[in-house]
Amino acid sequence: MRVLIVTDAWRPQVNGVVRVLESLADAAKEQGVDVVFLTPEGFWSIAVPTYAEVRLALTTCGPVGRRIEAAQADHIHLATEGPLGFAARRYCLRHGLPFTTSFHTKLPEYIAARVPVPVTWTYRLLRGFHNAGSGVLVSTSSLEADLKSRGFNRLMRWPLGVDNVRFRRRDESVLNFPRPLFLYVGRIAVEKNLTAFLALDLPGTKVVVGDGPARASLEARFPDARFLGTQTGEDLANIYSSADVFVFPSLTDTFGLVLLEAMASGLPVAAFPVAGALDVVAQSGAGILDMDLKRACLEALSIPRWKPRARSEVFTWDQSANRFIANLLAANPT
After folding, report:
1. Most buried among 24, 261, 263, 327, by the most CB within 10 A?
2. Domain 181-312, what fold?
């Protein structure tokens, strides 16, 4: 079985969508499924404003269609709603090729945080994109309920996973800052609501891992916080393990893969009780979800580290890949 995934998000971008797709492909391969990608590589592209590392392919339906045909895939999955996703959608509809989609990012809210575009307008556009397919894969029950209320059809649950071997509790700390260490990992941008974390009066040290358009202004505004830039692989895993609490101030994430990475590393979570955090942490005792984020941070310090680790073990990439494949087969039976 061969699956073609069309995605506008790809290396060298460092984000959750890219990590999800790479991890999915590795896990699917172990199950005998060949996953190939149609990405912006090989196309002319332009940088997205405030997302310089994100490049949108400049192409039309024809070149994308030729790559789709060359892939000779049994199933086509459109992972993103960018130029490649829309071009692939047009080609598939024109030639009667079934396809599935997935909803990874709340683009309407992200766009509205930057320009005065009503979220209802963008959701209308996205609804048309996704409802043309035979199934829309979503990571959580909260996201499923939200999209259903907005008129999205044929929603299918696809829980994500985490590498519990790489992300684990380690003996040595690589962070030599005053404790306790409150850690954030992710993009440094307006939609991540980082000010809600950095403005808190907390003991110890706030540590921020990642990069983005808001980094310079936040570093200047909060000089006591430690900004470590983008970290990956073992360096990132060591940082997770070295902290005391993982703080997730976002109000708009659909899942929050970093939550699972932190929990696998034994980090209790402090977050707002919103979709994403509610689904991942749930009633596990692995974190504190409170509209008072300072209270959540301080109370999370008392959570034993085995609890978040135990919760993370519910999510594996093998199970995620298995559900992904099952959804494709259910949506487009051969």
Report:
1. 263
2. Rossmann fold (3.40.50)
